[in-house]
Amino acid sequence: GLLITAPGGTDALAAFAQECDQAIGVSVPDFDVDSPLGTTVPTDHLTPATATYPDGTCDRPNVLNGKCDRGSRFRVLVNTPDAYVVAHARKMGLSPGQYGDVAVIQHNKVNGKTCFYQGALEEGFHLSHDGKVKAPSKGVGKPAFWMTPSQIVNSKFPCVSCHDNGPIIRSPYLAQISGPNQLPGAGDITFNSDPEPYSFVGADFASWKAYKVEVNDNLCNNCHRMGVNNVSNTGNVPSNGTALDLGIKATAPSQESKHPHSATSPIWMTPGQDTFDQATADAALEIKQCAEQFHAGSPLPNSPSCKITQFTTP
Predict the structure, then answer these.
(1) Is pLDDT at 2 greater than 50 in this prediction?
(2) What mean pLDDT is predicted for residues 91-116?
(3) Which of 20, 108, 141, 161 is the most exposed place for a label (fewest CB within 10 A)?
């Protein structure tokens, strides 16, 4: 039958996915989260061993929810010299074959073009939790599995509000994976640094902007960008992002649901540090204090002690 094109409607997602495929040069396929081609994200030293979601502590909990989410899955669906597609499924205590959050990132390393897809959420959207996932190029699904682009943009978790120094957040939770599903950029200390390009495909995401936050002689700037974005702290979106939030979490004396920092449960930042270091935490705080001077529509700070520059391109 004929598809009726409606703004934000079922096939707005299919149209977006088609635009993404053309811009990025690889496609998001159908996939089964439980396929043996995927990897279960380790929850090493889960304590107590019988802990069920959202309880328990472990060596490398996720940072988004601050939980040890046993049974979560990650898969590199496509990986070429120029582009990749990765999928992450958060189990969230659901029954076999069901997942509480499925997200896909599609990125071209050469031109920077990036697309985010979000599915399976319960709260506010009541989406299907089925781990047998249909490609977003086929639409939102029946029953609905994927959010539409306009739903993502208008949600309280627009992707760039966290992903503001590049496409991938490399916390130890996913960076611990080895083998064919190793996270792109894991082990590369300069990943998400200049001149790596970053931009968003599609009219719905044209307003998203990310900026690098630079403080003279700051440790955090030595390896990768620290980012701030134009959607955090606006409307219903919390104060998220690499400079405002993740840098602080990555260097703090403790982390939610995580064992005390040690060689087996190392602190996120910096690599090889393992335990808390005040100078590292101070560096992250300097970056945060600079990022707090960002106000959308106002002149950007531009001094050695705090410089903020847009790095995403249209």
Answers:
(1) no
(2) 99
(3) 141
Does 2 fall in a domain? no
248-262: string of b/e by CB count within 10 Å (b at 16+)? bbbbbeebebbbebe
What is the identity of the amino acid at 195?
Answer: P
Q: 70 in a domain, yes or no?
A: yes
| Residue 17 exposed, middle or buried by CB count within 10 Å (0-12, 13-18, 19+) | buried
Q: Which domain holds residue 166?
A: 10-310
Q: Per the domain annotation, does 1 fall within a domain?
A: no
Q: What is the pLDDT of residue 10?
A: 54
Does 303 score more than 60 pLDDT? yes
With 0-12 CB in 10 A as exposed, 13-18 as middle and 19+ as buried, what is 289? middle
The answer to whether residue 288 sits within a structural domain is yes
- Domains in the chain, number: 1
Longest dimension (CA), the chain: 63
What sections of the chain are H helices per DSSP? 10-24, 149-153, 172-175, 247-251, 278-291
Cβ count within 10 A of residue 312: 21
Mean pLDDT of the chain: 96
Helix, strand, coil percentages, rounded to 5, for the chain: 20, 20, 60
Q: pTM here? A: 0.95
DSSP state of 192: T
Q: What does the alpha-carbon distance between residue 116 and residue 13 come to, in Å, rounded to a whole number? A: 11
